[in-house]
Design a protein that fits this description.
single chain, mainly alpha, F1FO ATP Synthase, 2 helices, ATP synthesis, proton-transporting ATP synthase activity, rotational mechanism, lipid-binding, cell membrane
């Protein structure tokens, strides 16, 4: 039963991270198209945002391992 819960948690985290990354990158490109002079700052903020979004699947993976080993 723990393996099923871990799989569902990982699937949700992967889907959420994919959607989140897509939104972050699309909004960054939209902002760069509107204000090209801000592209450096937008790119920096985009990398920070992507890093925070990618932390979610990593945490979900650790939690899934803990659930499976219980």
């Amino acid at each position: 039963m723990g393996a099923i819960a871990a799989g569902i948690a990982m699937a949700g985290a992967a889907i959420g991270a994919g959607v989140g990354n897509g939104l972050i990158i699309s909004k960054m490109l939209d902002g760069m198209a509107r204000q090209p002079e801000m592209s450096g700052q937008l790119r920096t903020n985009m990398f920070i945002g992507v890093g925070l979004v990618e932390a979610m699947p990593i945490i979900a993976f650790v939690v899934a391992l803990l659930v499976m080993n219980k």
